[in-house]
## 1
Amino acid sequence: MTLVKEAPARPAKKRSAAPVAGRRGRRRENLAGYLFMSPWIAGFLLLTAGPMIASLYYAFTSYNLFTPPRWVGLDNFTTMFQDPRWQKSVEVTLKYVVVATPLKLLLALGVALLLAQKRRGQALYRAAFYMPSLIGASVSVGFVWRALFSDDAVVDRTQKIFGLDVGGWIGNPDYVLYSLVALSIWQFGAPMVIFLAGLKQVPQELYEAAEMDGAGPLRRFWNITLPMISPVLFFNVLLESIHAFQVFGSAYVVSDTRCGPADATLVYTCYLYQKGFKEAQMGFASAMAWTLVIAVALVTAVLFWSQKKWVHYEEAAK
Amino acid sequence: MGTSRNVERRTILKAAGATAATLGLAATTGCGGGDGTSADGTVTIRYAWWGGEPRTIAIKKTIALFEKKYPKIKIKPEFTDYEAFWEKFQTQASGGNPPDVFQNAVGFLRKYDKRGVLMDLKAQADAGNLSLENFRNGVLANGQVDGKQIGIPVGANTMSLVIDLKAFKNAGVEAKFGWTWDEYFAALQKIQDKLKIAGDTGYFSIMYLYDLYLRQNGKAFFTDSDLGFTEDDVTQWWTDGYKRVKSGLVADPKKIEQVKPKSGLSAGLAASEFTWDNFSIRYQGEGESDYGLAPIPTTDGKDTGQYLGSLMLSAFSGTKHPKEVAQFIDFMVHDPEVGKIMGYDRGILSTTEQYDAFKPTDPNNKGVSAYEDEVAKAGVLGKITPHPSGADVIEAAFLRIGGEVAQGKTKPADAAKALFSEAKAAFAG
């Protein structure tokens, strides 16, 4: 702890004591630092920043990859807003975000609450619940999902026992999106771990005091746990919604690359991919990408604005 | 503390230097051999195709044969499935780095000719590196656009009807040459009544079948630069199709969707399916019944609208080794041994040398051969009609929108409107 506190003060003092040698040393140190970072800096500039700026330009052009981009102003955006498939993709994505994110966080919080209690085999349980998140994003799990939710497969047969015969989810435009939601919820490990860390930080004396005042478990959760972990909850809501907006792999694999049937799993990024890489309408695809960036930024801004109302930071309380 | 810091710094600098050196090295190796010529004059050309496992195994054998005959030319194979192939190809071609030789199809000729990717192989033929002789039934024309020879057909295929022979027999129905659509659907009705399975897997989403139907009625799917039918035409086509889904004559699209990549026919969901005849070989391996090729239903009792299509080999216009590429294509389409190895996987072999060399022995290949002979004999084969740039995108849209109609998610009239609006964008692209 002390080391960390001292560190920022040191350079200021040294500068006056040994100006020449110090500066040269620092420069060499900086040089080495930049050298070390250079692969990442180069990577960022060439593979992230460069293409982003280029795509901002392409968003205002008609560009089929072969002939040079032609400036079309806002055409891509006006076409896009009128495009029924684009509207469909927005609808599908919003549905996915609104359904998958809260359910996933609820499950993550619920399991975290259980795992926060001390009992034998705690580490094992934690590992077991985190496991799906390690493999969940892989293509192979997408295939497994496709098999699980198909006609006459595990889920379908289980449903039939309860008299809920829908004949498989994968081929049914009304259900298939929920198989993706299930896949997302199943990977609740990352927010769970963050919740767990948050729960550990809640001072035990608060619970003890509340208990003495006669507060029941629900009351303690509502009045102590929830406010105390609200920064963590905020972080998870933010991260998971942004994540959900960008869903691609599961939709692409589970729908056998077509994001169907009948565009039922046409999530935003999937339509973007089809426009860009199947139909080579790179201008349109870039416009779509930037619209998504702006939409996600807006959602983030709203969340940040809302945190004044419901997120409690300990510092503020002191 | 001081010394240890120095050591660190030195190590850091060394490490950084080493990294830079490796990067530099990587860069140089990356550049070396960029034009595919090595010091001893050996030339490397890239050859890409799409297709299933059997095709890949066969092609690799033919490559080995070629490399033996031309020891100075090395072939670097690249292969994947159909959709991934064209996505990858588009990206590579736009970056000026497509394969030197690649499998091609009619729907992509104009698109990539317009973008300047395809080599006119006439010049190489004139130079004597590639023979344009001995092609059967005029299929060489399939690779011609505006007087240029931009594709060399490796085979000839035609749209066909594949039927579940057992189901047809058990229901007591027969597929006859020159039968009409009414007779075809009546047969399917009998199958549905007797065997409780659907008759067809979803005919109305297949662009190439609708093309045949239009050709039977004096139209075609495409003109040189546009769609060759009206919104009303396709609205009617899809309205009829959806009616047949509702009545169970056509299999439930939800079930068809879920057996993918298996076909609905081999999964036993329906008794017949329209597809290219050379694909019919897959059913025997996938399904449990016996499958056979049957005639395409007609409108007037005679004309099926069929024509010979082709898979072909094309070359990149910017290849560094046009001569070697031409020699390779020449070998692949004319060498009798190659014909024996490939069989009818990419359609009936297109040149007489290969056609004569391969005598089908298994029932599948025999069936394909007999089918095309029969179709040719009936004298119904027409000329192939144009596939303008954008045809590939429209084929995918036709399949997708037809699927929406089948699922009851889009009304046929709205579907037709959507198809026309997407087609407009595709032609413009």
Note: Chain A touches chain B through 33 residues (CB under 8 Å).
## 2
Amino acid sequence: MLQFILSVLTRARIAMEISKHLVDLVTNSFEALAKHILVLLIEDEDGYITLSVTDDGVGIKEEDVDKALAGEKAPRGNGLRLLSESAGAFRYGSDEAGSHVTATFTKPLLGKVGDALIVFWQEMNITVITLSATSPRGAFCFDSRLIGEKYGDRADIITMVKVREDVNYNLTNIFGGNKE
Amino acid sequence: MKSIADINAIREQMKSKVLIRDNTKEGETHVFVGMGTCGIQAGAVEVFNAFVDEVSTRVIKNVRISRVDCLGQCDKEPMAQVVLPGAAPVTYAALTPAKVKEIVEKHILGGNAVTEYIVK
């Protein structure tokens, strides 16, 4: 019975949506005082999706990354362990220029990236978030600097909804919805 | 999925139907949604977006919805704190989009906290 429960938990972790990993990783970038965060979502011809988050922040200390990956209490490194467990391939690196996380998902559940992105609405006033998504079916780019020009008044909550729906709509077209 | 035109149409429609609590002079209502790893796994992104949906479709003025880190009780996530102007913060636990709808209606619009959802 115990083995069954553990098996279910493992499967649940594997099924965690990429959009939710994105929230953890972008949170890490903000905690590293990043001023520019670049998110890449790339689907290759085999259907694998790679999520990459690069920032110009101070990164995470190596010992904190080790702790976070081991599941120990760490001051930084939200969600790195979950990411390493649910991604087929995972890599983290940082230096004085910033940090970089890449994870490739062989069974990608994309989730709603627009819903995840607007969680950082307040922060986007001072920090640039750029999202670039490509697949064999097309490409889409979002840049938080263009919110006012493309979507409307940043102070109006309806603008948040417009951004969310635009990102969700375009990414659904590009990635074709969730893949099992 | 709704298009931007649909959302604008709903917004215009709701403007005439909903009593808007315009608290511009009183200050701003602030909603903080706990967005630690624990909260995200428990559904905090959905809760955050449920607040956005309710506040935008009801065209409620002067409400700010923000992400914060873990609110400290991981087993009770998703959690959110609602702070009305001049009032003490009220922290809610184990939230769902349906509960958020009720909180927006009764607490943010009505001014009365939904006691059964307050963290114990």
Note: The longest strand of chain A covers residues 36-43.
## 3
Amino acid sequence: MTAIYLDNNATTRTDPAVVEAMLPYFTDHFGNASSAHSFGASVGEAVKAARQKLQALLGAAHDHEIIYTSGGTESDNAAILAALEAMPERNEIVTSKVEHPAILTLCEHLEKTGRAKVHFIGVDRLGQLDIESYRAALSDKVAIVSLMWANNETGTIFPIEGLAELAKQHGALFHTDAVQAAGKTPIALKDSPIDMLSLSGHKLHGPKGIGALYVKKGVRFKPLIRGGHQERARRGGTENVPAIIGLGKAAELALQHMAEEQGRVKDLRDRLETAVVQRVPNCIVNGDRNDRLPNTANIAFEYVESEAILLHLDRAGVAASSGSACTSGSMEPSHVLKAMAVPEAALHGAVRFSFSRDNAASDVDRVIEALPPIVEKLREMSPFWADAEKKTNPVLA
Amino acid sequence: MWEYSDKVKEHFFNPKNAGVLATANAVGEVGALACGDALTLMLHIDPVTEIILEARFQAYGCGSAIASSSALTELVIGKTVAQASAIGSRDIADFLGGLPPEKGHCAVMGSEALQSALADFRGERRAFEFEEGALVCRCHGVDEKAIEQAIRAHQLTSVEQVTARTTAGSGCTTCYERIEDILVRVTAEALRAKEEARVAAEAAARGRQAPAPAAPGTVTLLSSRPRPAPAQPRPESPRPARAAAESSPLTPTSPLPPPSAGMTNLKKIRLIEETIEDLRVYLRKDGGDCELIDVDGSNVLVSLTGACVGCQMASVTVSGIQERLIAKLGIPMRVIPVGRNAHGL
């Protein structure tokens, strides 16, 4: 029995076509992209071609608006710190309570060290931004607004262009963490009010350790990593050429598979969600079902703890997650679900199933078969379940 | 992700003695839904021999919480109440072949449920406040309260000292910054309390003929000087001018610590200020900064800002400042880092 992988928001399998594209750049085309000789020149061209593929995925106006980085976290850090440095007259940041730790931890640090005042905007029960609080936080003191395109735990999609529009009215820069959105939902940055966007290679079937930061032409930018003149002096360090080639290939494939993501992958997710809700009592689907990534299902099971479910699922050959991999293994409930005010009984029992184009219909069948008895067994053991069941099922009372 | 021993897995996947025990005459309950962990331990104890005849549990929690509960029942069955009361979290963890560091609290929950059940049997009420404060060190299950208590009881001033006393921070070290925050807060609170007590004592000593000493402008530049509230913006003026302006040397003063080594307090403070001002140049080079907050006898309170905050080398910086001060002033001094919000001491 081969294991089923339903944790694609944590990372994806590198597409074999991506690996194939990368391989020649280790031993054959090993030149430094900055070198003037023939070894460098061909590599430089390949790096440019990869950039154009990313440009196409993001619908950006120019390929030079894309800076290669080591991944989503670096892109996020670079964007926020660049904005603070480029706009010394402004020292406030607006972000949300449900961002990835790459943003939250940095913002908390900036606030603690007195380098910025940060507004952490809350969300509603669906995970959608509290627009009134957002409007209230915006002012001419705000250097940058950073809001995620899609949430990694619930898949909820923010109305990002509208939010960016509001930020622009106050002269603030607008950055979006699109690590989960890129490749899963269409993005068109040309003529959009978005100034900066982060993405990561390994979330879209590319290699790990590579990502990109889009910086709109004309936006004042200060590099996070200073060094050589690579990336037009916006990110020092010799280019990670094989990974860049891989990222380019992954972007090309993601664009080709966009319709499948929105169609077949979404159908798999929906079928799983519907079946689980039908077969398992007392569970809640978290996130905005009207505006959500096509691949993500976050289901909270009341009166059981998610790690216990995940251990059983793992034994049954199903790999899922309790939220972001960065916080799993800790006892703190998800900051995203807490911000969404998920009821106490369900807060610790959330399981995230995240699909990709690698998944098949049979994967869904396996989960539907394995999950209900696991939850039932754990609930029988739970000191809270008997009382709760009586409340929800009058026949037992 | 999961670093569970085979024994933990065995007790998790096939827990022993799970379910309700109808014959129970001793019940211990700990935890809550909100904590993400809860355990109800039910024991059937022979009232004459005090032998635990049966044990069952209901648990809500992660894999190791369920495994610990199962292990606990296996450990207590057949034991007398006296024998069982000696079972601690360590025994549960050992029985399971060890628990991952961040899961140590699961075994603690087991031992608390056991003690609670035994207290119930003896007719006592023993309420355990599970996870009283927020957990700071996950590796060793040390919460905020335990750290605060250690800081107060032993007057700890560095993260290393807190680690030595409480073990907090000796595992993965990710809680280093949080310990530092607690240290800053508790130190500030302790100094504020000491200050208030001193002011109160002075007021009492002066008796009824003198007005309250805390009125602005009536005290010297030492620690009883009124300070701006924490929320107020920090004055831009250089410190020496401010210190001189705020003090009113003509007012009768409260008994001050004797000037050390023939130095006036004013001179001492100026020297301290100069020394710190010199050092700031070096700190700023590394993106950090240090500001003199107050001088209380031989205690010099400073606020480390910028890159110094959260820096693993912060305590080295503090001892560096201390050494410099001692060298310059020729008297023993203690440098205590406090938070930026500690102006309101």
Note: Residues 326-330 of chain A have pLDDT under 50 and may be disordered.
